[in-house]
Amino acid sequence: MWIHIVGGGPSEQLPSLHQYDGKQVRWLGVDRGTKTLLEAGIRPVKAFGDFDSLTEEEIASLQKTLNDMDIWPAEKDKTDMEIALEWAVEQGADQIRIFGATGGRLDHLFGNVQLLIKYANRDIEIIDRQNVLTVHLPGTYTVSYDERYRYVSYIPISRDIKGLTLTGFKYPLTNCHIFRGSTLCISNELIQSSGTFSFSEGILMMIRSSDFHRCL
């Protein structure tokens, strides 16, 4: 089972949601993201949030349309996205994709990245029109070439990343030690149909990006 979550980020940052739809996908709406899903013709199985970005009329309309809305007070100790993501993890989803989590407010963007760090042992992606962001624990991973996402960047989340090795890339590395704050691994590119990255210690973020001027 795959669970896809749509948050309330700017709609112009969203890719086409239909390309990520399918029989095995269950959609969740978060705050205004619920309205975004319905406008795209996708009915979420559940909606979460305080819905403070919607008018009373819009909330009433959602309540008439949806069977399951988990409405929270505005004053709480978790963001709407964290509440939805916790629920998705509890369902035992094999993969979770998050949309509408970038653009707009930077505090929400960094909060959403923090959620990926919290669940670094799960298969979770943040996706927008230009980027796919994932967080990884030590191990060896395969990256397949995708013409939509030419650039591949690695950003240290923990203080140190030890033993970082990149194969199949334009700029390979072998057993490299990089530190948080380093830009050494920004804007690399695959030069083969697939490559690998591996490291022995730390928490590492991978961001796959399209060309700066290209709109996906």
TrEMBL record:
Source species: Parageobacillus caldoxylosilyticus NBRC 107762
Pfam families: TPK_B1_binding (PF04265), TPK_catalytic (PF04263)
SMART domains, alphabetized: TPK_B1_binding (SM00983)
Protein known as: Thiamine diphosphokinase
Key words, A-Z: ATP-binding, Kinase, Nucleotide-binding, Transferase
Molecular function terms from GO: ATP binding; kinase activity; thiamine binding; thiamine diphosphokinase activity
Enzyme Commission numbers on file: 2.7.6.2
Superkingdom as given in the UniProt entry: Bacteria
PANTHER family assigned: THIAMINE PYROPHOSPHOKINASE (PTHR41299)
Class of enzymatic activity (EC top level): transferase
InterPro entries named among the record's database cross-references: Thi_PPkinase (IPR006282), Thiamin_PyroPKinase_B1-bd (IPR007373), TPK (IPR053149), TPK_B1-bd_sf (IPR036371), TPK_catalytic (IPR007371), TPK_catalytic_sf (IPR036759)
One GO BP: thiamine diphosphate biosynthetic process
Domain Thiamin pyrophosphokinase thiamin-binding intervals: 139-205
